[in-house]
Specification:
The protein is built from twelve helices and twelve strands. It is of the alpha/beta class and about 375 residues long. Helix 2 packs across helix 3, helix 2 runs parallel beside helix 11 and helix 4 crosses helix 6.
């Protein structure tokens, strides 16, 4: 006999499914594609101004998580076709990490990018985990990973070795941006001990990356984290150029980054790469919100209202979310992932849609985005 808890849980799941069904073109399964709506112009993808600290040339990049088989495994050729579709759509910034699929994503990105002139694109990768060959991979979230184990290493020697390993995996001559990865309190393997790892990075990775930048081996460095504290601490102990902030600025949740994190970074001339601009697919209909396995109680209704307003204005939620995340001056790139060539192409198309000013005005009037949040002109 079902308990009251079971009945309430079933009701909540049913309500969530109904809300998802109301999202036109919702991406319910891996590889689904939300169609791009609205008037698509012939303008170039938004670009960053020249001068100041190093920024990628274009504000739209490609995130490497799906190429590392996050959530679902994809074939090698599909991953390569997806990267090439992004390139053909004008994307010239590619973000990666040894952690994504235990080297799998770097190999897949490199199998495409090595054929292009490195002066024609920007690539970032990350340091903090070193991969070593193993009889079998550890228990990780990546699907069908290769047989590598990993260990955390934020030392100077570990940082330089990680960069060299990434160059070899990708088969390219240069890495432009290096992020110190996942050194944060919400990394479950660290928790409150993240400060100990940060102390190692302060002695090792940070001065080593600044040395590599001075040597011309890299062009920029920063933190690649899902929590603001490490990025802000890095301002106190180093001279970073750019931060990859995932899970911190989206059309669904952005107040803290807008009011606290962004102003402090901007004051130092440090720009932001927005990771997870679609909240790990939740904006477009997937029933997962970011990466901790839970969906906050306030999110389903907010997504439903956002999608309804978008439909009234003739646009789709993905387009709204990507352009919203790219709007602040401090943001130098947004890096949605893509699982298929079609998804990569539609991400690029979303950046070319002319969104009616009335859409943003209604979102602010309804309290769905902050009243002072920057929106596309």
């Amino acid at each position: 006999m079902p308990t009251r808890r079971h009945v309430l849980s079933a009701a909540a799941l049913g309500a969530a499914a109904l809300a998802t069904a109301r999202i036109a073109g919702a991406q319910l399964r891996p590889g689904d594609l939300m169609p791009t709506l609205g008037t698509i112009g012939d303008r170039e993808p938004p670009r960053n101004p020249a001068g100041g600290r190093f920024r990628p040339p274009t504000k739209l990049g490609l995130g490497g998580g799906p190429a590392g088989n996050n959530w679902e495994a994809i074939p090698d050729q599909q991953a390569r076709d997806m990267v090439r579709a992004a390139w053909d759509s004008g994307v010239r910034y590619f973000d990666n990490s040894p952690w994504y699929g235990l080297g799998l994503s770097e190999r897949r990105f490199g199998s495409v990018l090595h054929a292009f002139d490195p002066d024609d694109y920007v690539i970032s990768t990350k340091v903090g985990r070193l991969l070593t060959a193993a009889p079998a991979p550890p228990q990780v979230g990546w699907k069908d990973p290769p047989s590598f184990d990993y260990r955390y290493d934020y030392s100077a020697a570990g940082t330089r070795r990680s960069v060299e390993d990434s160059l070899q995996r990708m088969g390219i001559p240069r890495i432009d941006i290096v992020f110190i990865h996942d050194l944060a309190p919400n990394n479950r393997e660290m928790g409150e001990r993240w400060t100990e790892y940060f102390a190692e990075a302060e002695r090792g990775a940070i001065p080593e990356l600044e040395k590599m930048r001075a040597e011309g081996l890299i062009r920029a460095w920063g933190m690649g984290v899902n929590h603001p504290a490490p990025a802000l601490r890095a301002l106190e102990v180093g001279d970073p150029d750019i931060m990859l902030l995932a899970c911190q600025y989206s059309i669904l949740d952005h107040a803290q980054a807008l009011r606290e994190t962004f102003p402090r970074l901007a004051a130092r001339g440090v720009s932001v790469v927005v990771g997870s601009p679609l909240a790990a697919g939740y904006v477009v209909g997937r029933e997962r919100y970011l990466y901790d396995g839970t969906i906050p109680a306030w999110v389903p209704r907010k997504r439903e209202r956002l999608s309804a307003i978008a439909a009234r204005h003739g646009i789709d939620p993905r387009t709204a979310a990507l352009q919203f995340a790219a709007a602040p001056d401090v943001v130098s790139a947004v890096i949605p992932g893509a699982r298929t060539p079609e998804q990569a192409r539609e991400n690029a198309r979303s950046m070319q849609v002319s969104i009616p000013a009335g859409f943003w005005a209604e979102l602010k009037r309804e309290g769905l985005i902050e009243p002072d949040a920057p929106v596309p002109a």
